[in-house]
Amino acid sequence: MQNMQHYYDFSGQKFGYPLSLSINSFKRQVFSRQSSLEISYVLKGAYEAVTEHFTAGIKEHELVIVAPNDIHMIRQMDNDKSVILTLHIDFSRFSAGMCGNIEEAFESMICTRSKNYRLLCRLRNKIGELVRMLLRGESSMFQMNAIMMELVYIASNHRQYPVERLPLQSVHHENYMKAIQYIDCHFSSELHLEDVAKTLSFSVSYTSKLFKKYTGISFVKYLAYVRIRTSLEALLEGKDSIEQIAADCGMPNSKSYTAAFRELYGIVPSDYRKKFTQNIKMNENHKEQSMSFDIEQKELLEHLIADTQEVLYENDGIKITQQEGHIQCRIQHELITKTTITQTDEELVMEFIRK
């Protein structure tokens, strides 16, 4: 059962809106693929981002961009205390004239203090603006639209930044990803471990061990979880019956769907849908409460609200920022530096030399 302690969800799905934001401490064991752009920002702890192209760790206040239609999993590296904020921007809810062809517009990458740092700062700044809106209870649709489109623009402008390209870990990892991709393409139909083993030209017993090693769960449970996660959007939209949703995602019947859903989320699908549409969540005492930020969530988000300036440059002793047209330079007091400032008609150059 997933840890619901830090759970918060703002989803535009119920309004037909492209943007959603969630905060959770879920343990991910299932790969997913969606048509939306995903930006996952670590509020606490550490996570591992696994995609078809790279595997990399991200720590507190770092993030990963997941391009639309990239198969991926973002899982905790530490324990249940890790908390992550995830944004999804669903391009299927845009008109074709607004976004055009998104296939080549984005690339999955990590943004840390050592890789793509400027991009990290720009995205963190915009996420902070969005969080501030939600914390204050503001509901300006045009302002939210502006923030959303700036996030899209910044994330899509990847050609200005180094692309994270980490090699696959091993041949076993490559075979594992082939199995994941096969399941991702065939989960809605009748699927057995024998089918996956045949695709890899492995024995059933070896394929079973491969799954257990890399996911920590059996093939049967993994397949059920994939189907459940894929069904969430249809469930939350509220148009189809539970029976229809179960059939569409490949589950044998609504009973098995409900059992797997309860095992994963600790609640039956019908109650999950009801609480979502009524903007209700369960607290740690398993009591209903309105979907709002609690004290601990606000503390985790505080740095996003306070740090709204754009960081132009930063190292362990110097930070240069821009806010509302003003450029500020902060130097730690214990640093002994020699400062040279040169001004021309077009630029101001500041040189800091440590003694």
UniProtKB/TrEMBL annotation:
Source organism superkingdom: Bacteria
Sequence ranges assigned to domain HTH araC/xylS-type in this UniProt record: 177-275
Gene Ontology MF: a single term: DNA-binding transcription factor activity
Keywords on record: DNA-binding, Transcription, Transcription regulation
Protein name stated in the entry: HTH araC/xylS-type domain-containing protein
Source organism per UniProt: [Clostridium] innocuum 2959
